[in-house]
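so i finally got all the pieces together for this one. its two components total, 752 residues if u count the protein bits. some of the lines might not be protein, just check the labels. i wanna see the whole assembly predicted at once instead of chain by chain like last time, that was a mess tbh
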Amino acid sequence: MSLFAYAYLLIVLAYLGATGLSLFGALRRRPGLRRAAVRVAFGGFLLHTMLLGHFFATETIPEWSAGVYLKMLSWCVLAVSFVLWHRLRWDFLSLMVSPVALLLFASSITHAQGTVQMPKALHGVFFALHIGVLFASIALLAVACGAGLLFVHQERKIKTKVRLAGFLQDMPGLSALDRVNHWAVCLGFPLFTLGMLTGFVFARMTWGKMLSADPKEFMSLTIWALFAWLFYGRLFLDWRGRRPAKMAMLLFALAVVSIAGVNFFLQSHHGLMERP
Amino acid sequence: MTLSIYLIGLNHKTAPVEVREKFALTGVCPPPEDLPADASPDAHAPASPDAPPPALFPVGKFLKEVVVLSTCNRVEVLAVGPGRDTVEAVLERWAGLKGATADELRPYVYIHEQLDAVQHLFCVASSLDSMVLGEPQILGQLKDAYRKAVAQNATGVICNRLLHKAFSVAKRVRTETAIGGSAVSISYAAVELAKRIFGEMQDRNAMLIGAGEMAELAATHLLTSGIQKIFVANRTLERAVHLAEQFRGEAVAFDMLHERLHEVDIIISSTGAPTAILKAKDLKPVLKKRRNRPMFFIDIAVPRDIDPDVNNLDNVYLYDIDDLNEVVEENLAQRQGEAVKARGIVAQEAVKFGIWLKSLDLTPTIKDLLEQGRELGRRELAKTLKRIKSNGKAHDDADVELALEMLVDSLVRKLYCQPITFLKRRAEEEDSARRYIDITRRMFNLDDESVPPDAHQDRRLPREGCGACNHVESGD
């Protein structure tokens, strides 16, 4: 087994361990286990960072497979959650994020063969401004979606006067969950807009036109329009609570459909289907 | 002399409140004839504030160790003594202190002996015997009682160990079960719900509309949980001002209620109004002014002060007295379920304590000591033989191995000969046997206990400037 294979195995084990520990810690209401889950996930994240750093340093972009993009996405989701964890110290974040990171990282291993073709002109700044920024905003949406799920569930229980059982009693209050949604939307929408704009600019530079009736473009514009509505509602119409929580969930679901459906199954210049 | 543990007490289950009041031992002074002789010549001199109060149950022939716990719901005397005479001595003394006879007291008391007493004490410490299951105050009260007994030199090997164990059992029960997890009073349930909505309470404001015992209690809980400010609105402004002073808040004229409502996050309403004073349509402009920040209404008035439709508004939550009662009942049921789990822990710990109690006799301690020594010696010998073999100096002589084992065993016996002789001599003396046996067990860790790093922190010497410690730690 090569050193890389060991690193992959360790990262998968760390995310799997973090998922198990956080789930067990939540169900048995053991804060110590939940904190341990955050530490284990962080250990995996450090190794994950080193692995990506190695890819960036040694491999050229045209040689990357779809797996590298999935690794980057799972890295972004974890990075956003660790920033949040650093600010809020919510150990339950691990419960929301570790399974997503595990799923993305594990599927990156199964998509490690072949390369995704990308025009040479799009390797440098474009890469950071388009893919990096969009991945960061999708990661923010993922966290907002998790917080939204918790919000909607808890709020329904409080409104209908049903007792909050078990681990829900250890979760943050409704206001705190709403604050996560606020930050995710306020940061995520400008990032998403920047990612879209750079996409159009570079499309114009590369193919001579901004729009090319690509399914990804249609999905992204739909998500952007909804995201803009949510952003406007949060900032100028005083939207709080259930409505923005549900919208964040819808936006993340659309983002997942966009990535899983368009990038992997449809013919598109964003396609991540392997070419041997 | 064999000593036994007795727990003699009465509580809310065995005695009505008049009896509990009559035999309470809080604030009771022992009769002057029981005070130490050197106290009498200078009776008018002010007592040192640090001096412990005189013991209510003096240690003597029938009472070797004693701890007295007296709260509004229970009076319990934990006593260690030579036999049933101990119980009689406690009952007579207790009744005597309150100007009654033992026969008057006897019908209301329960008497637990040995492991039953241990188990009962663990239950009390873990709040499994409390009127409100899982309430946290009893542990603090027990700690105070123990501290007082220690200051009066009324505790010894058994009580020290038993009480420390009771504290750790209570901690285990709190950590491993949800016995103290959810609120079991209406006022506290309301505050817990507020925390579920708002999380941190530091930046929140609350308003009391009307006054009443339960509303005031909820306001007190809110203040304890860190709320920023309390507004009080009442039809009688004087009453509002008085209450506002009590909570260091602000009085609001009842007519200004709607104008000030947008400033508050939590509203506790308990007026005697015959119809609703707040309706959903009144709150829409308030929510607009608040930019839809959430509001929590607690309506404990009957008939209700707040229209139930308010709960249908976005970001507004309303609980009335029936909803809160339901929450409390569910929480109580949950605590009952947790209590079963907690009793399992208590029983398990009581058995462990029983094993320790038995080991306080001389023979098991000598046996444990020699066994531990022999095991250590054999383990070290096995390591040495393994090292010799790995160095290639193999030897197949079983006789040599046997001889070495005998050497190790003999060395252990010789090493422990003096401590064992010392223990045997102490065992012939009346009072000191248990103390030395206990010290031996702790010194050699015969009960395989782990000591927390912060144990007896208050008794340790400051580490700064301790050259000897630095020397050891540096590994020189």
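Residues 69 and 144 of chain B are 8 Å apart (CA to CA).
Chain B touches chain A at residues 178, 181-182, 193, 195-200, 288, 291-294, 311, 314-315, 317, 319, 323, 326-327, 330-331 (CB under 8 Å).
anyway lmk what u think
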